[in-house]
User: Fold this.
Amino acid sequence: MKMHIKEFAKLCGVSVRTLHYYDEICLLKPAFVDEQNNYRFYDEKSLMRIQEILFFKELDFPLKSISEILSSPDYDKQKALKEQRKLLILKKQRLERIIDALDNAQKGKITMNAFDNNDYDTARKQYEIEAKERYGKTDAYKEHEQKTSSYSKDKWQQVNDGLNAVLAQFAECLQSGQAPDCDEAQSLVKNLQNYITENFYTCTNEILKGLGQMYVADERFKENIDKHFEGTAQFISKAIEIYCK
Assistant:
């Protein structure tokens, strides 16, 4: 099967301009380009690729993340499809609640919980973080593997204890009534960033910001951090957000 770019764009429901851009950023290359007229052509593999891209886009993944995930040699398509289906079901359930709320509104009834999107947002953020960790193979991931490869069991315990000590300081700051933008909290964010860099990988502001989001999006992290004091994860996340602006 061979399709000209216009035919392919129409079939996929995207613009020709979008396909040009995907080509430029190496997210979706044409199957081949006619050397005489530079026309782009696509095939069945192209269809499979753009379908995967569109699934991720439907879940609000940025193109950079999609490219990293799909380019990974460890990418597991079937596992990705299974996770995406779970998220899309959550999205569908929210739309169904909103439709029910519309029906009730026509009858004069008010239903406000239909607009709650927290379950989907939390699950989507968690999936994006885990997918990038699993498939991204970023420089930070590689540095983490290299730096921690020689860690013994005792060393891991020491490093984790040190990290928990930093998190406990945030809890004490919160308990004392301080705000996330106070000098103490911002100093603690810097300490956290330095600790991660020293023991795991170079923690840039971009990476730090992602960690802050993960601390509240991933229930496992949130629960572990909030053992120090209820609300600590949210406090750290907000403090990091302010620090990274």
